[in-house]
Design brief:
The protein is α/β, with parallel strands linked by helices and about 325 residues long. It is about 40% helix and about 15% strand. The protein has a single domain (about 5-315), classed as Aldolase class I (TIM Barrel, Alpha-Beta Barrel). Helix 2 crosses helix 3 and helix 8 packs parallel to helix 9 (about 215-225).
Length: about 325
């Protein structure tokens, strides 16, 4: 047991809800964020100040940010795409803005409808506005570990974009495995290089579980010295190039694994399981979380009645392996 501190950053109310067809009522969003604020997260990505026409699921961003109860120990961050979005976010008293672009040219053009250089110029304008305040600035680099159109992304390219943003004043960078293409040895190499080159940046890893690799990749990142991870309650979140596939790594599964290995997350697992159980009703369908279905490792069960009655072992356990 190592006792190392790991910081968990919840993204379900932004990255998860933005993909949902069923609109989550504003009051329900506020109540969920308030519940999450008491669970011990380091950071909560509450919403997105994108155009309501582009993401109607988060058209109530101002109302949510104005009405949530702020916990002093939690950083409340929001996604902003441009200067107008930043101005809206700053009017709501956010703690941090999160900016997004892709390392892959193909993905950036597909997702944001502009080249990487155009995205960088637009985000530079946002940074210049936000730097006039005390609000922190994080940039999330999508497809940092693989692009569904270009394949592998050179490590040097990822580090180069990190360098460009570090030079213009961001305080943190999130490396995103946007479509679940990362694998452990790749993650370890990239994280080691990023940590060595940018020791002063707050570095976060954002894994998707599209191919079932998110927890394995988390362990590789931990070995490389990473201590901040995005995750999504219930495993909410989409993967646009793998329809129907699981999106973000599931918060409760991540916390469960980390605590079993002795890491200190500060997150109350019982409380986040309780919050996760609310999601199916809010979004109108089941969630990917396996822990919500199976329970924690030591959530034990009563002995089956057949076994108690002394029936032969073969008969009593014929349904199990």
């Amino acid at each position: 047991m190592n006792g190392k501190r790991v910081f968990i950053q919840e993204v379900a109310t932004r990255d998860g809800f933005q993909n949902e067809a069923q609109f989550v009522d504003t009051d329900a969003k506020i109540a969920l964020v308030n519940k999450l604020s008491e669970c011990g997260y380091a950071k909560i990505e509450v919403t997105s100040f994108t155009s309501p026409k582009a993401i109607p699921a988060l058209r109530d961003a101002e109302a949510v940010m104005h009405e949530i109860k702020r916990n002093e120990g939690v950083v409340y961050t929001v996604l902003v795409p441009n200067v107008r979005g930043a101005e809206r976010a700053l009017s709501c008293g956010v703690d941090e803005v999160n900016l997004v672009m892709s390392v892959s040219e193909s993905h950036n053009r597909t997702n944001l409808r502009m080249s990487r250089e155009q995205s960088f110029a637009q985000l530079n304008d946002v940074i210049n506005v936000v730097k006039q305040t005390k609000v922190a600035i994080n940039v999330s680099l999508s497809t940092a570990m693989g692009c569904p159109m270009e394949g592998d992304i050179a490590q040097e390219d990822v580090l180069s974009w990190m360098e460009r943003f570090a030079q213009i004043g961001v305080h943190g960078v999130t490396l995103c495995d946007t479509t679940g293409m990362a694998f452990p040895s790749q993650v370890g190499s990239l994280c080691t290089a990023a940590r060595q080159k940018f020791p002063d940046l707050e570095l976060t890893l954002h894994f998707h579980n599209t191919r079932g690799m998110a927890l394995a990749n988390t362990l590789a990142a931990l070995e490389a010295g990473i201590d901040r991870f995005d995750s999504s309650l219930g495993g909410l979140g989409g993967c646009p190039y793998a329809p129907g596939a699981t999106g973000n790594v599931c918060t409760e599964e991540l916390v469960h694994m980390l605590e079993l290995d002795g890491y200190k997350t500060g997150v109350n697992l019982t409380e986040i399981l309780s919050a996760s159980a609310l999601l199916p009703q809010l979004i109108g369908h089941d969630v990917p979380s396996q822990l919500l279905k199976a329970g924690r490792r030591l959530d034990l069960h009563s002995m089956p009645c057949l076994a108690k009655d002394g029936l032969p072992e073969q008969q009593a356990f014929s349904a199990g392996a």
